[in-house]
Write a structure and sequence with these properties.
Layout: E1 2-3, H1 9-18, H2 24-35, H3 49-58, E2 59-60, E3 68-71, E4 77-82, E5 88-96, E6 99-103, E7 107-109, H4 118-122, E8 124-127, H5 130-139, E9 148-151, H6 161-172, E10 184-188, H7 192-201, E11 205-209, H8 215-221, H9 224-227, H10 230-237, E12 248-254, H11 262-272, E13 278-283, H12 297-309, E14 313-316, H13 333-337
Parallel strand pairs: 1-2, 6-9, 9-10, 10-11, 11-12, 12-13, 13-14
Antiparallel strand pairs: 3-4, 4-5, 5-6, 7-8
Helix pairs in contact: 1-2, 5-6, 7-10, 11-12
The structure holds iron/sulfur cluster.
Residues 110, 112-114, 117, 119-120, 154-156, 189 line the site of iron/sulfur cluster.
């Protein structure tokens, strides 16, 4: 049965019209789902009993509890959710002082096959509908205390643009969560058609997975470089203003002896010199069977300091949830089952 969670106001209006109800009922339903966070259609008590029965005959609310929860020693929690195509996905709650960030998944697995990523090794088994993406946000125990959402979980969000955009609309619209787009970051490896739309139509922050300033090296880490070279991605980004409200950051995983030396730091500065941005340096979490060495923690510091000296805001991102396979590059529902 189709879910109500994940429907935009326009889609809910189409639903109520198809059931012979007045348009204002759509707004009441949106209010129950996204603001009052109701647990069932029966709980929508300002809808008449007849309307609730009608809705129940054709739709389910679509709220679904997680099936497994793993807690890291650092406070990070990973949740496993069943999804409507029969698969499973993971999302990760990362507490940090006043901030509580949820890292959500946008696909079941991923087809992009980045060398350093466990989700890529799992393969792709389906797009997540908006309802399954939003359910992660609505059904974690911390739901009402979340301060930030990052689309950095399983899958490539800009390979699922139509469903992603519905979720972003619901998160930021007055009828939905009414969040500022500044609380949301969409992370991509650079799927150009989706990126063009995201830049033009949305206002949320952007994170780009870069990992090497050299195209041939980047290609050996990320097959996407062949279809959508980083030079074209940067060209597109330069058309927009990232100096005020909206932020672009570049994610850079450091691999020992591969991309962590001064030559790479210099090339990175040249590549990004005319883009107001920040760079997040990320520790590589080694994967079995992948010939990529992690960098020494000490090597990250001079790399960061060089970028900072050159005027690029650069941080070494703390690794969170490594002990429960929740850290960057480690999400996989196969791993979760183990
Ligand atoms: S890094 Fe992102 S895009 Fe690449 S395989 Fe993993 S989930 Fe997919």
């Amino acid at each position: 049965m189709e879910s109500l969670i994940g429907k935009t106001l326009d889609e809910l209006t189409a639903v109520v019209r198809s059931l012979g109800m007045k348009d204002f009922v759509a707004r009441q339903i949106a209010d129950w789902i996204y603001q009052k966070r109701v647990g069932s259609i029966d709980g929508m008590t300002n809808l008449s009993l007849a309307h609730r029965k009608q809705l129940q005959a054709h739709y389910q609310l679509g709220k679904c509890a997680f099936s497994l929860q793993q807690q890291s020693t650092d406070g990070t929690v990973k949740y496993l959710f069943p999804v409507s195509n029969g698969g499973q996905i993971e999302c990760v709650m990362i507490p940090d002082k006043e901030r509580i960030t949820l890292c959500v998944s946008s696909q079941v697995g991923c087809k992009m096959n980045c060398l350093f990523c466990m989700t890529g090794k799992q393969g792709f088994s389906g797009q997540l509908p908006a309802g399954d993406i939003l359910n992660q946000i609505l059904s974690v125990p911390e739901s009402e205390r979340l301060t930030n959402i990052v689309f950095m979980g399983m899958g490539e969000p800009l390979d699922n643009v139509s469903e992603l955009f519905k979720v972003l609309e619901i998160l930021t619209a007055g009828y939905g969560f009414a969040w500022s787009p500044k609380r949301i970051t969409v992370s991509t490896i650079g799927v150009l058609p989706g990126l063009r739309r995201f830049l033009a139509e949305r206002q949320e922050h952007l994170a780009i997975s870069l990992h090497s300033p050299y195209p041939d090296e980047r290609l050996s880490l990320m097959p996407i470089e062949k279809a959508y070279p980083i030079a074209e991605i940067l060209q597109e980004i330069r058309k927009y203003d990232f100096s005020h409200q909206r932020r672009v950051s570049f994610e850079y995983i450091l691999f020992g002896g591969i991309n962590d030396d001064r030559r790479h730091a210099e090339a990175l500065c040249r590549l990004l010199k005319d883009i107001p941005c920040r760079v997040n340096l990320i520790k590589y979490h080694a994967l079995p069977g992948v010939d990529l060495p992690p960098t020494d923690a000490e090597a990250m510091v001079p790399f960061r300091d060089y970028l900072t000296e050159k005027g690029i805001t650069c941080t070494i991102r703390a690794s969170r949830g490594e002990d429960i396979l929740a850290a960057c590059g480690l999400l996989s529902t196969r791993a979760a089952k183990r």
